[in-house]
């Protein structure tokens, strides 16, 4: 098991290194414009630009710039923002609570709904309840996130507020450490925005995986031995059927923690996704690079965690 974890960790570190190399090439070498001029401002003098270029190390050979860049990353130094002259990591960490709250809450909701719905649908394959769940799942998958968010905003904020029932706020984020009740009140509709689409997707995956598992020989053997249907379902069929679900959760959770741009924009959540959009709009190069690397880090960590959990649950994963 230790060898498996070490191998997966080294693979994750290699992936992160390749991403840092790609980010450096794209943003330091392929980006139009002078980073020193962007940092100093358009009204800076030639001497000021030269001083900034020397400070950023842009007057040195490319390989030296990359080594300086990697050395700074190893010390958690993502540079300074061109716009607000603040450390990029400080800016990202300030935005992170909103993104983490949105990602974990929405994933938790759609798993709590989708997995039981998928299992229920698979057990009643071909029946009216199965067709109804399948239809609802397809409908949820078909709605774009911005459409779901707009509808929720109109119904649960605009209409309710005009009717004299201001149950939900129009947006914004309240940290859970400040007021847990207000945090929950502000997060329910953003969670629902992501959960509608996620629930539909995961219901279909859970149903398909469960149907495939129920047709395996070992499940038929367990039934032939006279085991109860509940025991066959939850002890023999469910664990292997959840393998693709867990794998997909790792990918989706890592991506969500890297920033959910549309949902954060709709509900006014100052998270990492909205920070990335603002950085692109203002040409804030260090912040763009920082958000890309943070998103990549979360994806790698989430997949590493899923691999380890899969290996603990099923020793065949380690052998594979």
UniProtKB/TrEMBL annotation:
Residues annotated as signal peptide: none
Bilayer-crossing regions: 9-30, 96-120, 132-160, 188-205, 245-267, 287-309
Cited InterPro entries: BPD_transp_1_N, MetI-like, MetI-like_sf
One Pfam family here: BPD_transp_1
Source organism, top-level taxon: Bacteria
Subcellular location: Cell membrane
Record's keyword annotation contains tRNA processing: no
A molecular function GO annotation: dipeptide transmembrane transporter activity
Cited SUPFAM superfamilies: MetI-like
Coiled-coil stretches noted in the UniProt entry, renumbered to this chain: none
Stored PROSITE patterns: ABC_TM1
Gene Ontology CC: one annotated term: plasma membrane
Membrane association type: Multi-pass membrane protein
Glycosyltransferase keyword on record: no
Primary location group: membrane
Swiss-Prot/TrEMBL keywords: Cell membrane, Membrane, Transmembrane, Transmembrane helix, Transport
The ABC transmembrane type-1 domain, residue ranges: 96-310
Family under the similarity heading: Belongs to the binding-protein-dependent transport system permease family.
Listed name of the protein: ABC transporter permease
Annotated organism of origin: Devosia limi DSM 17137
